[in-house]
Q: What sequence folds into this?
């Protein structure tokens, strides 16, 4: 069985995943659905999406590290 | 022989070599052939599962979408980034169960959890029905690109035969390890070539990526604002864009050639780390889309839009070596996905389609032989469709995406809901597929223009819940195996 801490960690991950997903579809993406300002040469819409992917990557990485630190099957 | 063919031939030779070598490192058992003796580490898993992102569709369809539909193509980035996340939780559970009970496919798990061979066979049939058009598209892509690289000297069927002849040889010979070793090589080749062209083409035509997007924004600002354009060229709606992402995210890890790789993983850590790294694959997709954007102002009117990359290779005045390199990258994209599909389809067909119907278990040698024979048969069928049939594959493939997504509630129920019953799951799956097909064939019946897979999923879940609650749950003994993996 999963510990309470692992359960809380995974719920936080789920929340971040749902938030970033909401930011890439309607209506969340309306905030990023424009051309300007350009970021590193990319239109804002593409930079926004790339940013969401990076946030997702960071959330996954932090969860994974915490899971591995918790060790064994507890974090699964 | 043209100069353009040289990088392609070098690439094909290396692929054959790397595909044949690993046979030395796997056992001569079904586990060795199908799952590489359950030994795959994070790097191998990352590239094997990356096949989803970098397929023929990515290298030809991705730029095609960006070229013709602008920001609509961003949906490819979004679903790939999110699609693997359920696997963080499902993958390790499936792996542990597979290792303990000797499973290699998702249908084996479904059949076991719900004590139903019919359900196992149904999931297998759905899998193969979805995989064959997918494989066919990969073969078509290869034939097309080799024909371009040879200036038409190689007819499409001959190019496809050469490339897929090589793929067939190493898949039959080395199995899972052949698929995974070549995946690493092909993955690195594609990413390098994708970045090279994604940076080079905007620089050549516009002086850089920034100036390119400024020029597009001045001429066609609607192309850079999501949800972009529909296939007809008019504005796409948010319903379609958002629901296409959601369906693809849910269906992503249900594709049999992905899900079954959990059973090939070395340990839980490898699977989880692969899921963590997976969104980085999407960052590698950005330059592939940029290739398509670079053609918007330079080469208007290319039809069909999927041919935008080959068109540029022919008409952009590039060095023949560069054209050859891009062609090799496209070959890698197709073969990378094609070999994984062939291997998965053969395995699923035998283990879930043939074995459950037999009265006695097969020997290891016979089962391996049958899997190899089935791989040959399935590849031959896909090859026939690729070179000789007029069946509309794109519509078949679109239908299969919504269909595969219907497996998602089944997998969640198997691992997370002890009360789910075989009747509930079977009725939900059939209803989901039927509703998906109905709205695919009769889109005018949709109340709002959501992806048909969403309607299928809603019906699927309602029926699954309702029928499960009205029928007798699986035996406590059976549920014990799943409880040990944790119901939470």
A:
């Amino acid at each position: 069985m999963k510990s309470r801490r692992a359960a809380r960690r995974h719920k936080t991950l789920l929340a971040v995943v749902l938030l970033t997903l909401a930011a890439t579809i309607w209506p969340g993406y309306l905030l990023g659905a424009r051309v300007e300002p350009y970021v590193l040469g990319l239109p804002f819409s593409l930079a926004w999406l790339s940013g969401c992917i990076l946030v997702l990557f960071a959330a996954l990485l932090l969860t994974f590290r915490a899971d591995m630190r918790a060790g064994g099957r507890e974090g699964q | 022989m043209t100069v353009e063919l040289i990088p392609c031939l070098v690439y094909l030779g290396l692929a054959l070599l790397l595909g044949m070598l690993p046979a030395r490192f796997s056992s001569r058992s079904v586990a060795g052939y199908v799952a590489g003796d359950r030994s795959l580490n994070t790097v191998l898993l990352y590239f094997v599962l990356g096949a989803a992102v970098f397929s023929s569709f990515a290298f030809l369809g991705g730029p095609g979408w960006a070229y013709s539909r602008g920001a609509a193509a961003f949906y490819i980035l979004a679903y790939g980034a999110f699609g693997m996340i359920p696997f963080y939780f499902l993958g390790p559970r499936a792996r542990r169960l597979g290792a303990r009970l000797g499973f290699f496919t998702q249908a084996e798990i479904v059949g076991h959890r719900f004590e139903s061979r019919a359900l196992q066979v149904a999931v297998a049939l759905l899998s193969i029905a979805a995989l064959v058009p997918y494989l066919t598209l990969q073969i078509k892509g290869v034939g097309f690109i080799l024909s371009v690289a040879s200036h038409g000297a190689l007819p499409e069927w001959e190019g496809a035969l050469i490339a897929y002849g090589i793929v067939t040889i190493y898949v039959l010979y080395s199995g899972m390890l052949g698929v995974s070793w070549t995946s690493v090589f092909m993955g690195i080749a594609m990413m390098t070539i994708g970045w090279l062209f994604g940076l080079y083409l905007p620089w050549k035509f516009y002086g850089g990526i920034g100036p390119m997007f400024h020029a597009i924004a001045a001429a066609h600002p609607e192309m850079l604002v999501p949800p972009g354009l529909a296939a007809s060229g008019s504005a796409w709606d948010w319903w379609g864009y958002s629901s296409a992402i959601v369906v693809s995210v849910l269906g992503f890890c249900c594709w049999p050639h992905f899900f079954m790789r959990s059973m090939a993983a070395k340990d839980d850590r490898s699977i989880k780390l692969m899921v963590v790294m997976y969104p980085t694959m999407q960052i590698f997709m950005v330059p592939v889309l940029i290739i398509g954007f670079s053609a918007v102002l330079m080469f208007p009117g290319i039809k069909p839009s999927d041919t935008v990359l080959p068109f540029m290779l022919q008409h952009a005045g590039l060095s023949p070596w560069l054209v050859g390199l891009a062609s090799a990258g496209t070959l890698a994209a197709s073969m990378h996905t094609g070999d994984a599909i062939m291997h998965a389809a053969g395995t699923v067909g035998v283990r879930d389609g043939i074995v459950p119907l037999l009265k006695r278990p097969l020997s290891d040698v016979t089962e391996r032989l049958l899997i190899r024979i089935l791989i040959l048969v399935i590849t031959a069928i896909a090859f026939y469709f690729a070179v000789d049939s007029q069946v509309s594959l794109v519509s078949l493939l679109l239908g299969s995406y919504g269909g595969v997504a219907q497996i998602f509630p089944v997998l969640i129920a198997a691992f997370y809901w002890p009360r789910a019953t075989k009747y509930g799951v079977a009725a939900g799956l059939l209803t989901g597929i039927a509703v998906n097909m109905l709205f695919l064939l009769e889109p005018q019946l949709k109340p709002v223009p959501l992806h048909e897979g969403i309607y299928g999923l809603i019906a699927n879940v309602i029926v699954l819940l309702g029928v499960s609650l009205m029928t007798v749950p699986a035996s406590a003994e059976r549920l014990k195996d799943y409880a040990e993996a944790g119901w939470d």
The interface with chain A takes residues 71, 74, 77-78, 81-82, 85, 88-89, 92-93, 208-210, 213-214, 217, 221, 224-227, 238-239, 241-242, 245-246, 249, 268-269, 272-273, 275-276, 279-280, 282-283, 286, 485-486, 488 of chain B (CB under 8 Å).
